[in-house]
Input
Amino acid sequence: MESLLAQLAHRERRRLRFSPVDFDASPTLASHFGVTEVPTLVLLDDDTPVARLEGRASAPEIEELLSDHLPARNPNPSLAA
Output
């Protein structure tokens, strides 16, 4: 799942920020977000969890999860502010 997320992070770098967390090195943070299974993807909006995937997930599953929460893509990136 890590390589899928790396590809997605690169492709969506204008709309999304990925922050991997080492579950073993950050048990307090993992506990704060209720992470009990690895891997877990927690989608945050202003530090509030809005969606999650637990266990291994495919690229289409991850993209489906994100599609409901990301702003629309700018069809002409050269006009982005």
Q: What stands out?
A: The chain has a mean pLDDT of 86. The first strand starts at residue 40 and ends at 45.
